[in-house]
Automatic annotation (TrEMBL):
Keywords: Endonuclease, Hydrolase, Nuclease. One of its GO terms (molecular function) is endonuclease activity. It comes from Paracoccus suum. This is HNH endonuclease. It comes from the Bacteria. InterPro entries: HNH_nuc.
Length: 278
């Protein structure tokens, strides 16, 4: 039963969205389902997703808003163009094989225009193994949907950094656009969905090299937004690249303008198998 897989679902969603997830069993329909929401908003004041089995080897996800989500809807409507672009790209990254309905709107230009906004996604033909099936629908459908909402709401990651021997928290205060972008787990999620986990510079695939310890690919913003002379639209498909930790650190050894990937590749070309990066 789906209720027996709450741990799998919660782990997948929290890793993908960068936010704590609340979860509860829902027996109101003909088949038992789950309700999922951002824990710090509770299910009445924010977006909520319902997950239910559909057919023999499928699941249906319905994402909408709670009865008292007016404040969050207004916050989403005030999201800046960059956050909107990333949210739309996350939803657009869902496989075309998934039947996706966006309140009568398109994958590339949808907007949350009221609290009645709703997304319905139906995934069919999932693996026979139920643990694998529910993990797949989480990674491929629920994570990008809820990550899109998290981006519009403005969730930031809180990280600890050492400064003068003391720990400092960096979360609600945005030090700079580029620093926030590099640390945003939803950026990493989208970058991997679009480009895979092979380093765009040296060609290494950490997960293949290190197994379970290889989830270390990092996201590089190809052009630091803080250095743009003229503001332009943010396009995650061409503005992000996956880099291994070594290459990511290497491109940033030149400041204020980092090395481009082609420049760094030229520096290291005598030591790198060119076929690996193609």
């Amino acid at each position: 039963m789906i209720s027996d897989r709450q741990d799998i679902i919660q782990r997948e969603l929290e890793a993908g969205t960068g936010a704590a997830i609340g979860i509860a069993v829902d027996q109101s329909g003909t088949r038992t389902g789950l309700r999922l929401w951002f824990a710090d908003l509770d299910e009445r004041h924010g977006p909520i997703a319902e997950l239910r089995p559909y057919g023999i080897r499928g699941y249906r996800v319905a994402l909408g808003f709670g009865k008292f989500a007016g404040a969050i809807v207004r916050q989403i409507q005030a999201a800046d163009a960059e956050d909107v672009g990333l949210a739309r790209a996350l939803v657009a990254s869902i496989s075309p094989a998934v039947d996706l309905q966006l309140f009568g709107q398109g994958r590339d230009d949808w907007t949350v225009d009221s609290g009645a906004f709703k997304i319905t996604a139906t995934a069919r033909g999932l693996p026979d193994d139920q643990d694998e099936a529910v993990a797949k629908v989480c990674r491929d459908v629920i994570v990008p949907l809820m990550a899109a909402m998290a981006e519009l709401i403005g969730y930031d990651v809180i990280e600890e950094e050492e400064k003068d021997g003391a720990h400092a928290h960096e979360g609600a205060i945005r030090v700079s656009t580029i620093r926030r972008r590099e640390r945003n787990p939803r950026n990493r999620l989208l970058c991997i969905r679009l480009h895979g986990e092979k380093c765009a510079c040296c060609g290494i695939e950490p997960r293949s090299a290190y197994g379970e310890a290889g989830s270390i690919i990092e996201v590089h913003h190809l052009e630091a937004l803080s250095l743009l002379a003229v503001p332009r639209a943010y396009n995650p498909a061409i503005d992000l690249a996956p880099l291994c930790p070594n290459c990511h650190r290497a491109v940033h050894t030149r400041r204020p303008i980092p090395y481009s990937i082609s420049e760094l590749r030229a520096l290291m070309s005598p030591h790198v198998d060119e076929a690996a990066v193609r």
